[in-house]
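Review session, final week

We close the course with one last complete record, chosen because it touches almost every idea we covered. It is Bacterioferritin, a protein from Actinobacillus porcitonsillarum with 150 residues. Go through it on your own first, then we will talk.
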Amino acid sequence: MANAKQIEILQAFAKGWFGTSQQHSIHAEIIRQKGFAKLADKMQEEADDEWKEAQRVNARLLELGETPVVGAVEYPVFNDVREILAFDLEEGYKGMAYLNEVVNAFSDDYITRRMFEEFIVDEQEHTNWLAEHLGLIDQIGYQNYLMKQM
């Protein structure tokens, strides 16, 4: 049986991922309307992945006999592609650090611990992608990068 701290962590992650899912979905639409379809598709894929992660957490809460909470953490919306990527990268680094801490909170719950370990892998892949793309902006210039995203 999960303890109160574990339940609090799970509920907070669900709300966080619902919030970032919405943020990424809005950013995908902003980017799409600017004409950068490739990047918009990637951003929407990330939004969908985060929505699924929130759903997994809520399903786990139900498996543990707990009630998920309805809500979402609020995140800022940006109009500039570089700002979107930079903010997402910064949040990704913070998120990975916190996920690594959280894993230890579930040392007595292998199923939830494993779920969070999978989230760490996903977050690492996403932050690597973001770092790579911000590096491309530095190497080839912002306008050239945007042209490749059309």
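Two points worth writing down before the exam:
The mean pLDDT is 96.
Residues 4-149 form a domain with the Ferritin fold (CATH 1.20.1260.10).
Good luck, everyone.
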